[in-house]
Amino acid sequence: MAKQKSFFMKQAMMRKVLFATIPILIGATYFFGLRTLTLTAVVTLTAIITEYLFKRKDGKPVSEAVIVSAVLFTLALPVGTPYWVAMVGIIFGIVFAKEVFGGFGRNVFNPAIAGRTFIYVSFPEYLTATWNLPSQSFPGGFTKYITDSIETVSGATPLAAMGTADAPGLSELIIGNVSGSLGETSIILILVSAVYLLATKTADWKLMAAPLVGFVAFNSIFYMMGVEGVPDPVFGLTSGSMLFLSVFFVTEPISAPKTTEAKWIYGILIGFVAMIIRTYGIFIAGGMFALLIMNTFAPILDVAVKELKATKSEKGGNPA
Q: Which of 40, 58, 167, 251 is 20 to 30 A from 48 in CA distance terms?
């Protein structure tokens, strides 16, 4: 009797990433309500079905990585994102950033970020103009479907409120009781996840650190130059998506460079481009655009580093 094939491709590293998202999922549910979990479930099921439709013809299993993409994609959304918009986004990410390149291991772009960027541009009102108030006391969102909404063009996220009386303090940003996307508000929970990923050797510390170094360095330079609209580096780092992006998305190994030098260049440039877009672009969420831009350059960076090393080695081996 032939052995029955598993529906999922076993990927221990992907399961570790999923474990790392658990504190953030629990925190997001507390701050914004049980819709966090239903939105995650709907997106995950949609992602699995989408990949299955591509794999069934060849009888290949669905990757556990698709679940990771779905959960991270959901955590990058506001809790009030309509289900159909979230479904469109994850389908786009899985199909056009993963399957068209040949599936897991061949994708050039990060599927979750590609999907998030697509709906950010296509349905901006749902991701930039409608937010929900965070719960302020226990049991918080554990006893309600969704917290009260704030519908305003200016928004109520920390970056949108910068420079106003409504701007949150550092303690609020660290804890996470501020409006924003589900996984991006609580600095302490993101750091807990980062420690787990690094301790289990699931994420490369260089890929995690490089974009933060680049972002803080250029944020500091712009701030000291007095560029309008640039916050102090601490507020800049803790008030947006940069930390969440660096911990979970830049460290995605398939779309990132493989050589050490290229990882540092790649990450620092992500931080730099994110800062440029956040300061001068029409979209305040510069990190996701920066990552996609640098995804395209990751293979070139590896080739360039190897070529330079080879040239240096040849010169060193053939002294004049």
A: 251
Under 8 Å between Cβ of 190 and 180: no
Helix axes 187-199, 205-224, angle to 10 degrees: 140
Rounded to a whole number of angstroms, the CA Rg of the chain reads 20
| pLDDT for residue 121 | 93
Query: Which phi and psi angles does 203 have, rounded to 5°?
Result: -120, 150
Cβ partners under 8 Å of residue 292, min gap 6 = 109, 110, 113, 114, 117
Is the bond preceding residue 124 a cis peptide, omega within 30 degrees? Answer: no
Angstrom distance (rounded) from CA 28 to CA 23: 9
Residue partners of 13: CB distance under 8 A and separation at least 6: 202
Q: Do 305 and 311 touch, CB atoms closer than 8 A?
A: no
Tokens of residue 151, six digits: 């519908």
> Do residues 273 and 279 lie in contact, with contact meaning Cβ atoms separated by under 8 Å?
no
Q: By three-state DSSP, how is residue 186 classified?
A: coil
Whole-angstrom Cα distance, residue 213 to residue 217?
6
Q: What is the percentage of the chain residues whose pLDDT exceeds 70?
A: 92
The single residue listed with the structure tokens 């959304």 is 77
* Six token digits for residue 176: 């996470």
Residues constituting the chain: 320
Task: Assess whether pLDDT exceeds 60 at residue 153.
Answer: no
Is the pTM value of this prediction over 0.85?
yes
Q: Phi/psi of residue 7, each to 5°?
A: -70, -35
Mind listing the pLDDT tens digit for each residue in 114-146?
999 999 999 998 988 889 999 988 898 999 999
> Taking the CB of residue 161, how many other CB atoms lie within 10 A of it?
17
